[in-house]
UniProtKB/TrEMBL annotation:
Species name: Stackebrandtia nassauensis (strain DSM 44728 / CIP 108903 / NRRL B-16338 / NBRC 102104 / LLR-40K-21)
Function: Ferredoxins are iron-sulfur proteins that transfer electrons in a wide variety of metabolic reactions.
Residue ranges occupied by any 4Fe-4S ferredoxin-type domain in the UniProt entry: 31-60
Protein name according to UniProt: Ferredoxin
Cofactor: how bound: Binds 1 [3Fe-4S] cluster.
Required co-factors: [3Fe-4S] cluster; [4Fe-4S] cluster
InterPro entries the UniProt entry points to: 4Fe4S_Fe-S-bd, 4Fe4S_Fe_S_CS, 7Fe_ferredoxin, FdxA_Actino, RnfB_subfamily
Source superkingdom: Bacteria
């Protein structure tokens, strides 16, 4: 199991979650952040600090945002397991589903 970042993160990228993760497994893409499903240790520390409640335990992702579960897995298909987001930095891509989302306007 893993934690999943969902729709509220898109185009916001608050990044408060990054500070909490003890294993540095929250990676930055173009339009949102993604949690590495193999590197996440399910500690739950990131979930309460997101100001827009975008983070969910995999089993608890709301039905309307279920596509984000696949998106978090897909994001790492080519990357493999880098073993730390801070050394990788921003990754200039998004999962297919996320890239297809309409831009949010303030
Ligand atoms: Fe996104 Fe929330 Fe983290 S908006 S970057 S999941 S703190
Ligand atoms: Fe990291 Fe724990 Fe969240 S391992 S991604 S802070 S559940």
């Amino acid at each position: 199991m893993t934690y999943i970042i969902a729709e509220p993160c898109v185009d916001l990228l608050d990044k408060a979650c990054i500070e909490e993760c003890p294993v540095d497994c929250i990676y930055e893409g173009n339009r949102m952040l993604y949690i590495h499903p193999d590197e996440c240790v399910d500690c739950g520390a990131c979930e309460p600090v997101c100001p827009v409640e975008a983070i969910f335990y995999e089993d608890d992702v709301p039905e309307e945002w279920s596509d984000y579960t696949g998106a978090n897995y897909e994001f790492f298909e080519e990357l493999g397991s880098p073993g730390g987001a801070s050394k990788v930095g921003k990754i200039e891509k998004d999962a297919t589903f996320v890239a297809s989302r309409p831009a949010k306007s303030e």
